[in-house]
Amino acid sequence: MRIILLGAPGAGKGTLAEQIKAKHPVAHISTGDILRANVRNGTPLGTQAKGYMDSGRLVPDDLIIAMMKERLGEKDCSEGFILDGFPRTIPQAEALERILSELKLSVDGVVLLEIDDETVVKRLSNRRVCRSCGAIYNVLYKPSKKGNRCEICGGELYQRDDDTESVIRGRLKVYHDQTAPLIAFYDKKGMLLRLSQTDGAESLSEALDRMLRERKA
Ligand code: AMP
Fold it and tell me: Catalytic site residue 210?
C-alpha cells in the first residue's frame, strides 16, 4: 500500500497512519517527526528547520525535497509507505512525482482527512505526545490513564511548542494558503479519497480499506 495523507494539522493523519501500520507492512513517513528528530539531534537540517517549525511556517521546499528523496530511496519504502505531512506545497507534489517515477513507484491514493478549523484548535491545544515513543493523547478526548506518563511505554507526555493556540491558527492559515491547493491538484488526477471524521461506526482505517477496495473493483 502506498498512500499520501492530506489534511490540516490535527486532522488525524498521524493516528490514521498508526492504524494502517498495525494492519499493513508499510513505512510511516512523517516529515514533522523526521524534522523534530533532526532538531533534537542538532543536525544542520534541524538547525535550519527549527525557526520555521517553532513559528508554524513551512520549512523551505528544497530542504524538504532533498530530505524526502533520501528517505523514499530507503529499502523499507519498497514494501509500501504512508506519507504523513508531505507533500505540503505544489512544488513538493511535483517533486514527489519525479522522485517516484525515478524509483518506478506509484501511489494508490491520496486520502484527504476533512476537519473544520475550530475542531483543530480544540484538538491540538489539548494534544500531548509521548517523548519516548511518539504516542498521541488528548487531555479532553483521550487522556492517558497514567496521568502525564505514556500508557504504552511510561515516557513523559509533553505539549509540542507549536501546539499553542496562536501558532495553531498560523499553521491553519499556512495550510489553507499553501497546502489546500493540493486538494484540486490530486482531485484532477482522480487520486483523491475524501474521509470525514463522521463516517459512523467504522474507524478511519476501516473506511479507507473499504474505499481502496471499491476503487479497485
Ligand atoms: P507536523 O508534525 O506535520 O505538523 O509538522 C510540524 C512542522 O514541521 C510544520 O509546521 C512545518 O514547520 C514543518 N514541516 C513538516 N512537514 C513539512 C513539509 N512537507 N514542508 C514544509 N515544512 C514541513
Answer: no
